[in-house]
From TrEMBL:
This protein's UniProt keywords: Iron, Magnesium, Metal-binding, Nickel, Oxidoreductase
UniProt name for this protein: Ni/Fe hydrogenase subunit alpha
Residues annotated as binding Fe cation: C64, C437
Molecular function per GO: ferredoxin hydrogenase activity; nickel cation binding
């Protein structure tokens, strides 16, 4: 048996590889998205005071720490029986929109755009953010501006630009000032203008999307607030492949609807519905579930998106324009929240005293999909059990099957081109996986591409690597 390894997958957050086993005729026998890194947060959280969880869990990742921070705080609210003030709810939502602006713009402009604006079949050394800067300098400048806004919003509301610390049991640790509000509002309005202007780029991707690329058919899960798009709160819904309702739940009820399991080729867990069906989360899933985005420009973009793909979309590459629509909605929603002077109210926390419930579950819509933080504590508030279900685990099955789908198309007689390798990676990039959230590793995997025949290892030096997040 011959094995092809694509290691590491480029332009994603974290490190992973693809393993493709070939049959005797050089065709694909099996292909898997493989992660061999270990996550330990569920274990080393045990014994910590639960009020420390919102400060510890953001360290899971430097790309999406806000989602972990807010989900953790929501779980703590339940444990202490706190009903947080409206201003705190708005600040947490604003903090989440800062995360979306930063994360979604990073992925669209810097990780996904080179495949569409440069070309998925150009040489790897030209298919990256640096080539995009040369070809479309204005796009690169706009990407930097909106990402700066996302970071500044996180810093002002969250207390830190990378690992926020302001969400605490009962609400928020501090308010924002009027000066901060007006400064952030100006930046939000500029970012909204850029997002509206650049929608044409994302819209063009609609016409370049191969509907069968990385094809899988799944159910979908995401949160909504009375049919409207919501990143922070609401009801978690599951629909089947045709858009029919399957279930709706909140909080600790999640365990009655989804389950985790593992496969022997990856340390990254998998998730599925209790009835055995597989589902996906993230931008594609959320847009399939909601009736509207709730903001004018995003709603107009959603209408164009649905004219192209239909009401309930299975197309894997549709994740990219769906992600852009969410980015646009977050820019608009940030303007709405910051336009209201009441956001500077100092009524941002309900005092908490002792444990009211020994279990708390925070469910939130992280940029990559539904995120669950589930803590069980003793009467003194020390964590006895911790379970985290991240979006990448829930999309794991679909990524795995999508990789196999494309591998069968691009591998022939045991050979694969640079373009073929990238097309396999494009399936994974469409989901914007966060391997750091899902797993943890010590050290750094080497950049290499190997073909491994039985009883013999041939290492092929890959001199044409692409630039990933860390390299850029």
């Amino acid at each position: 048996m011959t094995r092809i390894n694509i290691s590491p997958v480029t332009r994603i957050e974290g490190h992973a590889e693809v393993r493709i086993d070939l049959d005797s005729s050089g065709g694909v026998e099996s292909a898997h998205f493989n992660v061999v890194e270990l996550r330990g947060f569920e274990k080393f959280m045990i014994g910590a005071a639960v009020e420390e969880a919102p400060r510890i869990t953001p360290r899971i990742c430097g790309i999406c720490p806000t989602a972990h921070h807010v989900a953790s705080a929501m779980a703590c609210d339940q444990i202490f029986g706190a009903d947080i003030p409206d201003t705190a709810k708005n600040l947490r939502e604003l903090l989440m929109h800062g995360q979306y602006v930063h994360s979604h713009s990073l992925h669209f402009f810097m990780l996904a755009a080179p495949d569409f604006l440069i070309g998925h079949d150009v040489p790897p050394e030209e298919r990256n953010i640096l080539s995009l800067v040369k070809k479309e300098p204005e796009i690169a400048k706009n990407a930097i501006k909106v990402r700066k806004f996302g970071q500044r919003l996180t810093e002002a509301v969250g207390g830190k630009p990378i690992h926020p610390s302001s969400a605490i049991p009962g609400g928020m640790s501090h308010a924002i000032t009027e000066t901060q509000r007006t400064t952030l509002l100006e930046m939000a309005e500029e970012s909204r203008g850029i997002a509206e202007k650049c929608w044409s780029l994302a819209r063009d991707i609609l016409d370049k999307t191969d509907l069968s690329f990385g094809a899988v058919e799944t159910a979908f899960m995401g949160s909504t607030e009375n049919g409207r798009y919501s990143v922070c709160g609401g009801t978690t819904k599951v629909i089947d492949a045709n858009g029919n309702p399957v279930s709706a739940f909140s909080g600790k009820e999640y365990a009655n609807h989804i389950e985790e399991y593992s496969e022997d080729w990856s340390y990254l867990k998998f998730s599925r519905l209790k009835d055995g069906r597989f589902y996906r989360v993230g931008p594609l899933a959320r847009l399939n579930i909601v009736d509207s985005m709730g903001t004018p420009a995003a709603d107009a973009a959603l209408e164009e998106y649905r004219e192209k793909f239909g009401r309930h979309v299975q197309t894997t590459l549709a994740y990219n324009p769906a992600r852009y629509i969410e980015f646009l909605a977050s820019c608009e929603r940030a303007v709405e929240i910051l336009s209201n002077p009441s956001i500077t109210s100092t009524d941002v926390r309900t005092e908490v005293d002792s444990v009211v419930n020994t279990r708390g579950v925070g469910i939130i819509e992280a940029p990559r999909g539904t995120l669950v933080h589930d803590y069980t504590v003793n009467d003194e508030g020390f964590i006895e059990k911790c379970n985290l279900i991240v979006a990448t685990c829930q999309n794991n099955w679909a990524m795995d099957k999508g990789v196999e789908n494309v591998a069968r198309k691009v591998i022939s007689n045991g050979k694969i081109s640079d373009s073929g390798k990238n097309q396999i990676e494009m399936v994974i990039r469409a989901y914007d996986p966060c391997i750091s959230c899902a797993t943890h590793a010590i050290g750094k995997m080497p950049f290499k591409f190997t073909i491994v025949p039985k009883r013999k290892v041939i290492n092929l030096k890959n001199e044409k690597t692409e630039l990933g997040v860390e390299d850029a």
